[in-house]
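Structure in, sequence out. Go:
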């Protein structure tokens, strides 16, 4: 009887461990970002993002960031897209996604406002290196009034059942972003 209880407890723990290692595509995030646009133009602001599973392998996502820039300018950056993830191991996924992108630059007191639309195509990898730490990297090609390629690295530390804190850095030809965030998964 004792052996059966120990065996049942071991199997139960293995099942919980396997469940905890699955990557989640249903979440919302709130973060703070700092942007460097070069030519002594930089700024910071808030970012909200989210993802929602449509099927087992397909997800929708969106994000919006608003940066207060130097010289009394504001930049809004919006993305709405769809993605596909492919499991290469129980804790690692490859991702391919595409998004509509919009950038809105408002310069106070001038007629130099700009509102541009374009697209993004991205490829990345996400991996849980243990039940609490997720690391990721991706490459994005963004075309909004000219093409730019970005390389992003990110990480999350999960605590509790549904929360994580994270950090990210994205490096482009003309635009770098660094940020911290909190994530709620559901």
């Amino acid at each position: 009887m004792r052996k059966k209880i120990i065996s049942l407890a071991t199997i139960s723990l293995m099942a919980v461990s396997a469940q905890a290692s699955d990557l989640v595509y249903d979440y919302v995030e709130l973060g703070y970002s700092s942007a460097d646009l070069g030519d002594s133009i930089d700024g910071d602001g808030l970012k909200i993002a989210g993802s929602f599973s449509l099927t087992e392998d397909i997800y929708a996502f969106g994000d919006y960031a608003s940066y207060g820039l130097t010289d009394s300018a504001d930049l809004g950056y919006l993305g709405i897209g769809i993605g596909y993830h492919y499991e290469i191991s129980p804790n690692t996924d490859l991702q391919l996604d595409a998004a509509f992108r919009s950038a809105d630059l408002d310069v106070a007191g001038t007629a130099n406002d700009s509102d541009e639309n374009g697209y993004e195509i991205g490829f990345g990898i996400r991996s849980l290196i243990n039940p609490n730490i997720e690391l990721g990297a991706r490459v994005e090609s963004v075309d909004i009034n000219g093409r730019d390629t970005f390389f992003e690295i990110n990480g999350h530390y999960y605590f509790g059942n549904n929360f994580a804190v994270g950090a990210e850095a994205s490096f482009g030809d003309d635009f770098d972003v660094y940020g911290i965030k909190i994530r709620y998964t559901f």
